[in-house]
Amino acid sequence: MPKKIRCSLTDCKAVAQRISGDCAFCGGHYCSNHRLLEDHKCQGLEDCKKEAFEQNAMQLNKERTQVIKGV
Predict the structure, then answer these.
(1) Any idea of the CA torsion for 57, 62, 63, 69, to the nearest 10 degrees?
(2) Where do the AN1-type domain residues begin and end (predicted)?
(3) Is the pTM of this model over 0.85?
(4) How many CA atoms lie within 13 A of 30 on its CB side?
């Protein structure tokens, strides 16, 4: 039987959740209490926020209403 993966947080001994406990930004495996970026103090949190901000800014610029002068 394969060994269960434990939460990557150093003080936590809980079993990591499959799929939802895997962090795409730091590569850690986390339990249900630490699976969110903020909960395990992810090193990639700032990168994630910056990426989301840039995507939102691009989307807003695409959807911006154009003002037509001279009509």
Answers:
(1) 120
(2) 1-50
(3) no
(4) 21
* Angle at CA of residue 25, ends 45 and 62, nearest 5°: 70
**Residue pair 50/25 in contact by the 8 Å Cβ criterion:** no
| Distance from C-alpha of 64 to C-alpha of 44, rounded to nearest angstrom | 30
Tell me the one-letter amino acid at 68.
I
Within 8 A by CB and 6+ apart from 21, the residues are 7, 29, 30, 31, 32, 35
Task: Look up residue 36 and give its DSSP letter.
Answer: S
List, for residues 32-64, the tens digit of each pLDDT value. 999 998 888 888 888 888 889 999 999 988 888
Query: For residue 7, which amino acid is it?
Result: C
Point out which residues pair with 30 in neighbouring strands: none
